[in-house]
Amino acid sequence: MQREKVEQLLLESTTSYPIIYDNLKKIYPARDGNPAKIAVRGLSLALLRGESFGMFGPNGAGKTSLINMMIGLTKPTSGTAYLQGLDILTSMDTIYTSMGVCPQHDLLWETLTGREHLLFYGRLTNLKGSALNQAVEDSLKCVNLFHGGVADKHAGKYSGGMKRRLSVAVSLIGDPKVVFMDEPSTGLDPASRNSLWSVVKQAKREGAIILTSISLSALPLLIHHS
């Protein structure tokens, strides 16, 4: 069903679907006596604006491999994907400006503050001046890192949960049209997790979001596909 839908959408050149997977495959070649490993097996899927797609499964199930292809870290073995109508094989430089990413492991600079992280990544999305400052403030408030001077402390002094919340804020700064979150709720307490899902629900109104988790119970009810 999804395969037929994707083929029709590609013929129509529609822009209503921020994310389209077109028979996407990732196979890691055999090495050191181990057989080839199929990480992503011919995925075809189309997400409308405001929709989210949840992937769950154990480590090694291909969740991170899929996201790594979407953000340009690895190339598909075959097939492709279109983000905002742009082919990931030929247009990643343009795609980056409308994409948000929360990786599986926090990629933060310990000597930068939470605010400085968001200022840096906000500029990469072409935010400037007062619009940038307002976006940073809003992002910090959304993930509860604004009050008590927390925003201006070095990330190296943050707890694991605070770092995770900052990574989520980084992925959403600038209202990206496409967001990939790899196990975003890892290390969060129940209250922080509920707050995170509220932020994600707000963010996906204008775009599409892909989330992963090792557990179905860790994914929110806002998921449209899984």
Structure description:
37% of the residues are buried. It is built from seven helices and eight strands, in the order H-E-E-E-H-E-E-H-E-H-H-H-E-H-E. It has 226 residues and is α/β, with parallel strands linked by helices. Helix 4 (114-124) crosses helix 5 (129-142). The chain is globular. The chain has one domain (2-218): Rossmann fold. Strand 4 and strand 5 form a beta hairpin. It starts with a helix and ends in a 13-residue tail after the last strand. The strands form two sheets. It has a four-stranded antiparallel sheet, sandwiched between helices. A four-stranded parallel sheet has the order 3-8-7-6. The mean pLDDT is 86.
Q: So, the CATH homologous superfamily?
A: P-loop containing nucleotide triphosphate hydrolases
**SSE order in H/E notation?**
HEEEHEEHEHHHEHE
Q: What topology, given as strand order, has the largest sheet?
A: 2-1-4-5
The third-level CATH topology is: Rossmann fold
Organism: Gossypium darwinii (Darwin's cotton)
Domain ABC transporter: 19-226
Protein name: ABC transporter domain-containing protein
GO molecular function: ABC-type transporter activity; ATP binding; ATP hydrolysis activity; lipid transporter activity
Quickly describe the structure.
With 226 residues, the protein is α/β, with parallel strands linked by helices. It has seven helices and eight strands.
Please specify the SSE layout and strand pairing:
Layout: H1 2-12, E1 19-28, E2 37-47, E3 52-56, H2 63-70, E4 78-83, E5 86-87, H3 92-95, E6 99-102, H4 114-124, H5 129-142, H6 160-172, E7 178-182, H7 190-203, E8 208-213
Parallel strand pairs: 3-8, 6-7, 7-8
Antiparallel strand pairs: 1-2, 1-4, 4-5
